[in-house]
Amino acid sequence: MKNYKLEEVLEKVADSFLGSLTGNNLEVVSHFDTDGITSAAIMTRALKRLDKKFSLRIVKSLNKEIIESLDKKKVVLFMDLASGSLKEIKKSGIKKVFIIDHHEIDSENIPENVEIINPELTKKEKISSAGLTYLFCKKIDERNKDSAKLAILGMVGDTLEKEIDRLNNSILDDGNILRKRGLLIYPSTRPLNRVLEFSSNPFIPGVTGNMEGVIDLLRESGIAPEKGKYKNLIDLTEEEMKNLVTSIVLKTPGKKDKDLIGDLFLVNFFGKLEDAREISAKINACSREGKPEIALGFCLENFNSKKKAESIHTKYRQELVLGIKRVNEQKKVVGKGYVIINTKDKVKDTMIGTISSILANSKTYENGTAIIGMSYDGQNKIKVSGRNVGKTGRNLREMLSNVMESFEGEVGGHHSAAGCMIGLEDEEEFIEKVKNQFELEVIKIANLSSN
Hints:
By secondary structure, the chain is an alpha/beta fold. The chain has 3 domains: 6-175, inorganic pyrophosphatase (n-terminal core) (Alpha-Beta Complex), CATH 3.90.1640.30; 180-325, no CATH class; 331-450, Diaminopimelate Epimerase, Chain A, domain 1, CATH 3.10.310.40. Helix content is 44%, strand content 17%. It contains 17 helices and 14 strands. It has helices at 6-20, 34-49, 64-69, 86-92, 129-140, 148-157, 166-174, 192-197, 211-220, 238-251, 257-260, 276-288, 292-299, 303-329, 352-360, 396-403, 427-450, and strands at residues 26-31, 54-59, 75-79, 96-100, 114-117, 178-183, 261-269, 272-275, 333-335, 338-342, 370-376, 381-388, 411-413, 417-423. A 6-stranded mixed β-sheet has the order 9-10-11-12-14-13. The protein has a 5-stranded parallel β-sheet with strand order 2-1-3-4-5. Helix 2 crosses helix 13 (292-299), helix 5 (129-140) runs antiparallel to helix 6 and helix 12 crosses helix 14. The longest helix is centred in the last third of the chain and has 27 residues, at 303-329. The chain starts with 5 loop residues before the first helix and ends with a helix.
């Protein structure tokens, strides 16, 4: 498949997928984050258009138990996962498998009954699983262009908005997405005081979660309410925006003006122009609070799901701000090039990945530092989320894979964002093995320098 272009793979697999549906039942399994949920929503629309019956399962992660529970006689479609589970899929005896994913993959061990769309196998294009699912469904039926905005939400949810290339640009055009430059605090379409109060990326010391701090910051920036209301972020004048950015930079060490300014994507959702980052955050909040079915309904613009999603998001934002505060107070294991934050039961397992990402983007630590967040899941498991500050440094997926050779479980993710699940009984041994992996890397670099 390495000799194929992504467009050729999309066409080839789409034809095979349509052929496999004749006389066979389909089971769809997708990841529970924004990228996975939007992928599921895009596929749901496309399959309904084809009038095909299917079952859908949304999962936190893919493990041996889930794979073994799948109906062997059905065609199975995995989205936004499974690239790291090829050995288990091969053993499972499932008749036919399709995978749409963008995570790192062992290209030497793809089973014969598996067909994969993954940019890691072509030219390593930067595109989310929702983007791939959209392009795949567009190959099936051009009318599926009406799902383009969902692909953009998936891209934003996977923080790939800075990786706009030809593929993603074509999706932007299909979805009539409005793209503007502005302050990267969301939502840009809401009153400024509320936006700053719940800002988690960046986390602004003395401001996030503190309304008095918000008012002080706005006063310092020369921004006052008009008729008792503050402007929406997107409506600030150039001078107001500049002053606000300066005030935020002064309160967030390591941040620079360029870190806070970037592309904003505005999409038409429920008949109104909305900030894609806020919609993405609401989808994510529903799944992390154990309500993926509400997230899916929200993506499909169901009004009942919209009300529920907004309520869940409000609660989630409050919990996230509290979680960040708890992590900042937590005792950490700090070594050369890494920080291990074992929150135990102080932070929800569904939030540790988000908080690790926020810390990695906060400039609290040097570029290249690996942040390893850990949290109990309440079922004798520990969720592990690794993130690289500045998206540079050690290959986290490779490092965690080396560590997990001693334990049961799969590793998923990329070079700078990877994760796994371990048993509660392996907590201390896992931490020691992670420390050893980083220390071995330091010794290796030192030996290379001396030669």
